[in-house]
Amino acid sequence: MKKIISTSKAPAPIGPYNQAVLSGNTLYTSGQIALHPETGVLVIDDIITETKQVMENMKAVLDAADMTFEQVVKTSIFISDMNNFSKINAVYATYFNDETAPARETVEVANLPKFVNVEISMIAVKE
Fold first, then answer.
1. Under the GO molecular function aspect, what terms does this record hold (predicted)?
2. Are the C-beta atoms of residues 47 and 117 closer than 8 Å to each other?
């Protein structure tokens, strides 16, 4: 049985999908971009600020499911320019403990929604 997870503290979906779905003890999040949840404006001043907004949006989705970054087991990071990897990684690292960080893939893509520079999705498990 699946439960739809939704919060006004993260951007509302702009298509036929939900912010996250909880199936059993596993949470599957949709990708988050740097949309400010209250204004709907993209926060893309620089890659550091953009990545922080993405992670804060993801934090809000995890919170809505009563979960934390500590429960994330897998992340997928999509970036438009691999030259931004180190800056994105530096921000991302502040949300995880090195000892328990999730598995991850980072992929450079030709384009992302709204032409943003980074999109991140996660899978988390309640124990």
1. deaminase activity
2. yes
Tell me the per-residue pLDDT of 26-73, one tens digit each, with 9 for 90 and over.
999 999 999 999 999 999 999 999 999 999 999 999 999 999 999 999
Residue 118's H or E segment, with its range, is strand 118-125
| Contact (Cβ atoms closer than 8 angstroms) between residue 116 and residue 41 | no
**Class assignment of domain 2-125?**
alpha beta
Contact (Cβ atoms closer than 8 angstroms) between residue 54 and residue 32: yes
| Residues linked to residue 75 through DSSP beta bridges, in sequence order | 104, 122
86-101 confidence digits (pLDDT tens) = 999 999 999 999 999 9
The β-bridge relationship of strands 26-29 and 20-23 is: antiparallel
